[in-house]
Amino acid sequence: MVRAVVGAAIVDDLDHPTRLLSARRTEPPALAGGWEFAGGKVDPGETPEQALHRELIEELGVTVRLGEVVPGPLADGRWPLGESYAMTVWWAVVDSGVPAPIEDHDAVRWLTAEDLYDVPWLPADLPIVDAIATRLR
Ligand SMILES: Nc1nc2c([nH]c(=O)n2[C@H]2C[C@H](O)[C@@H](COP(=O)(O)OP(=O)(O)OP(=O)(O)O)O2)c(=O)[nH]1
């Protein structure tokens, strides 16, 4: 069974995004230093949206408003993350708080279309970043 993961493409504006938030992982060692979408695994008893809101409060200290799903190639628009995980990614904007690397990350960075690929994204995230890049102005 593929495990469900949720992630947020946090941008400055849902209708006219110009900046995307990326976060640098600290764990596990094989993934540490890679940049990703904040989020994580859906726990038993949670909806995917509940899981994402929980993870964003824990990891970045923010509440968000979710937009549409960034549609991926798998069933339900999910994106493959290797063999074991599939991630649903929502567009999101910050409702309250300032994103900070509270847990699981040691840096966050807002990226524009110009410097979107200047950070070493986790390899599985690159097709997702490509999809987002088409919307960043
Ligand atoms: N959150 C997140 N995980 C990603 C991304 N890209 C990617 O390959 N992954 C992988 C890393 C992990 O193997 C898996 C998600 O696990 P996670 O470690 O973020 O989940 P979690 O916060 O619930 O972690 P834990 O409680 O089990 O330690 O998906 C991404 O953009 N965001």
From TrEMBL:
Keyword Cytoplasm found: no
PANTHER family: 8-OXO-DGTP DIPHOSPHATASE, NUDIX HYDROLASE FAMILY PROTEIN
Enzyme class name: hydrolase
Gene3D superfamilies documented for this protein: Nucleoside Triphosphate Pyrophosphohydrolase (3.90.79.10)
CDD domains: NUDIX_MutT_NudA_like
Assigned EC number: 3.6.1.55
This protein's UniProt keywords: DNA damage, DNA repair, DNA replication, Hydrolase, Magnesium, Metal-binding, Mutator protein
Top-rank taxon: Bacteria
Domain Nudix hydrolase: 1-136
The name this protein goes by in its record: 8-oxo-dGTP diphosphatase
Cofactor or coenzyme needed: Mg(2+)
Protein family per UniProt: Belongs to the Nudix hydrolase family.
Organism of provenance: Pedococcus aerophilus
Pfam families recorded: NUDIX
Reaction catalysis annotation: 8-oxo-dGTP + H2O = 8-oxo-dGMP + diphosphate + H(+)
